[in-house]
Design brief:
Elements lengths: L1 H25 L5 H22 L14 H22 L4 H28 L5 H24 L1 H33 L4
Helix pairs in contact: 1-2, 3-4, 3-6, 4-5, 5-6
The structure holds MU-OXO-diiron.
């Protein structure tokens, strides 16, 4: 609904600008204000695209934990979050939304299991607190899934806000803490 409101707002703004420009031309010699409105009208698609792009996460090498197998999984998680963002931005419908959400939840669990197995097998000292963070995250995702049954749009917004913030913070904080330990064990 929010995306639809946003698109409606852009369409309304374009309509107002076009009306103002037509009135500006009809009023006599073209004023600088009319030309400024034309320039603004032309710039709207670019501004709108830039604002939409900011909703997506881009992989940054600074996110690397130094272990390729885990970096690849983190990249996939980012792609799946972006896929969910696309589903919301383009109102792709409930079926695609559900698929994107399910795929993200499933892959998140797969990734957590992979990390936990490594940490447990190599007796990583902070295994338990790290695992507790994963469990808390899964619990939050379950809450979002329950919310999705009540209000799709609100649940999707909550899911995206939460997932983007949580994932980047977790990768850059908690995950990086095991880097040296696991690299020393020969994990790649
Ligand atoms: Fe990469 Fe601890 O999740």
């Amino acid at each position: 609904m929010n995306q639809q409101i946003s698109m409606f707002g852009v369409a309304l703004l374009i309509l107002i600008l076009i009306t103002a420009i037509i009135l500006g031309f009809a009023a006599g010699p073209t004023s600088p204000l009319t030309w400024a409105l034309i320039a603004f009208l032309v710039a709207i698609p670019f501004i709108h695209r830039r604002m939409a792009e900011r909703s997506y996460i881009e992989w940054d090498d600074a996110y690397s934990v130094g272990i390729d197998s885990i970096d690849q999984q983190h990249k996939r998680l980012i792609n799946l979050i972006n896929q969910l963002q696309t589903a919301v931005d383009y109102s792709t419908g409930e079926e695609f939304e559900r698929e994107a959400l399910d795929e993200l939840v499933d892959y998140t669990k797969t990734h957590f299991s992979y990390e936990e197995e490594l940490m447990e097998n190599y007796a990583y000292p902070d295994f338990e607190p790290h695992k507790a963070q994963h469990e808390k995250m899964i619990q939050k995702v379950d809450e979002v899934l329950a919310e999705y049954e009540q209000d799709h749009d609100r649940a999707m917004r909550h899911a995206l806000d939460f997932l983007k913030q949580w994932l980047i913070n977790h990768i850059n904080g908690t995950d990086k803490e095991y880097s040296d330990f696991l690299i020393e064990k020969g994990v790649k």
